[in-house]
Design brief:
single chain, 5 helices, mainly alpha
Length: 133
């Protein structure tokens, strides 16, 4: 017999919420959950923390923007392009844009445009400030 792990209270609560939502809101909840599982704007996520930190480039590592890109994928791409930026410093703005898309239904392309402006402006500000390594 295969052992069955009991479902924790928070998992039951999340499943109850998910089942109560309509199709569109379910998709939004799942997208936001994937965003958080990927580390949200602060990094982290489900990845193994034991790996040594890689050398962070000082210049953007440009990647082309795909024609059909989700907001979550755009945040991941921009974090790869601008690895020198501290995601914790951008948590509030990035999360607000993600929430505007997921919870308020803002168009993904518009939100991604704003995310790109946010990352570029933070990079440019970092370049002007001699206080950052």
């Amino acid at each position: 017999m295969i052992p069955v792990e009991p479902i924790a209270a928070h998992e039951r609560r999340l499943l109850k919420i998910l089942r109560a939502l309509n199709q569109q809101d379910r998709g939004a909840l799942i997208a936001f959950g994937e965003f958080l599982a990927a580390g949200g704007a602060a990094g982290g996520g489900l990845a193994d923390k034991a790996e040594p930190a890689p050398v962070v480039p000082s210049e953007p590592q440009h990647e082309p923007r795909p024609s059909q890109e989700s907001v979550v994928a755009a945040i991941k791409r921009l974090r790869r392009v601008y690895p020198m930026l501290d995601p914790g410093e951008m948590l509030h703005e990035t999360s607000a844009l993600m929430a505007a898309h997921v919870l308020q239904g803002r168009n993904a392309d518009e939100v991604i445009d704003e995310l790109e402006v946010l990352f570029v402006s933070r990079y440019q500000a970092r370049q002007r400030c001699p206080c950052k390594p």
